Amino acid sequence: MGLGVNAARDHQFKKYQLSDLAMFRVITDDLDDKGITHIKDEFEKWVISNGLRELVESFGLFLDKVHTACLWMATNKKQLTNEDANKFGPAFEWKGVEEKLSTLRNRFGVSTDKEKYFTSINQARNCITHRKGRVGPEDLKGEKSFRLTWWGFDVYVERPNKERILLKPPFPKEGIFFKDGGSLLLQVNDRTIEYILGDTLNLSPNDLSEICLLVRLASDDITRSTHEYAKKIGIEVKDSAKLVEQNTPVDGL
Predict the structure, then answer these.
(1) Span 31-39, mean pLDDT?
(2) Distance of CA 95 to CAs 65, 72, 89, 189, 212, Å?
(3) Which residues pair with 158 in a beta bridge?
(4) Would you place residue 242 in the very low, low, confident or very high pLDDT band (cuts 50, 70, 90)?
(5) Can you tell me the distance from the alpha carbon of 131 to that of 217, in angstroms, rounded to the nearest whole number?
(6) Relative orientation angle of helices 33-76 and 2-9, to the nearest 10 degrees
(7) Using one digit for the tens of pLDDT, what is the confidence trace for 181-219?
(8) Cα dist from 190 to 22, 96, 116, 148, whole Å
(9) d(Cα 51, Cα 88) in Å, to the nearest integer?
């Protein structure tokens, strides 16, 4: 996303043709600045939208691997039969991210407290994949609007008079000076963008960066929860990082 957005916002960068890398050209060589700006605006939207799509799909692949590991452990400890494991595995891979999270929680107790956000995040992915980001009846599901929800961090400076000042990027490299000083506060808040029928999903770089962090932290939750499941059914969990440092072969998890 950084490479794409920075290129789109660089006013000096106007090399939009593939030059010698492609045989055919579908856009004229003599676009004016207005035309180039339009292409770059659409390119930025495309980069961010597809960043969200790939983020969700990669998280889904991660959940597939977690589910497979849980199946291995469950069959090893006779918690499941081989027949059930062979049936559950392929069926799991066809589920959406929110269904995968629900299945892991119900089947193995593997969970994250951020699960609730993935219903709308996965629906946004579906909208981007199947409708190029334009909100359709499938996204509304009988409601008047589709609400994309996640959470992010708000950073405030609280001044001695208790006034709070919200800090937003971009932050100056030299920092921000407050003559009377103040305290730095961090607050987690839900974010919601509401879309109606016909709207196009549109996220800012900061929106997607917050969603990336949410997915990263949810992945950490899932990993810890998987370790707890392993311990619960009697499987020793070894710290692979420490084993690598000690040059010790890893024969367990």
Answers:
(1) 91
(2) 14, 19, 11, 29, 21
(3) 164, 183
(4) low
(5) 29
(6) 170
(7) 788 888 889 999 999 999 999 999 999 999 999 999 999
(8) 45, 23, 12, 10
(9) 30
SS (H, E, C) the chain: CHHHHHHHHCCCCCCCCCHHHCCCCCCCCCCCHHHHHHHHHHHHHHHHHHHHHHHHHHHHHHHHHHHHHHHHHHHHCCCCCHHHHHHHHHHHHCCCHHHHHHHHHHHHCCCCCCHHHHHHHHHHHHHHHHHCCECCHHHHCCCCCEEEEEEEEEEEEECCCCCEEEECCCCCCCCCCCCCCCEEEEEEEEEEEEECCCCECCCCHHHHHHHHHHHHHHHHHHHHHHHHHHHHCCCCCCCHHHHHHCCCCCCCC
Q: What are 100's two structure tokens?
A: 């995968």
The pLDDT assigned to 252 comes to 46
Contacts of 206 (CB under 8 A, 6+ apart): 152, 169
Phi-psi category of residue 120: left, alpha or beta, with phi > 0 → left and psi -120 to 50 → alpha: alpha
Surface-to-core class of residue 177, CB atoms within 10 Å of its CB (0-12 exposed, 13-18 middle, 19+ buried): exposed
Q: Which amino acid is at 42?
A: E
Please count the residues of the chain: 253
Q: Using CA atoms, how far apart are residues 40 and 5, in angstroms rounded to an integer?
A: 9
Q: What is the pLDDT of residue 249?
A: 53
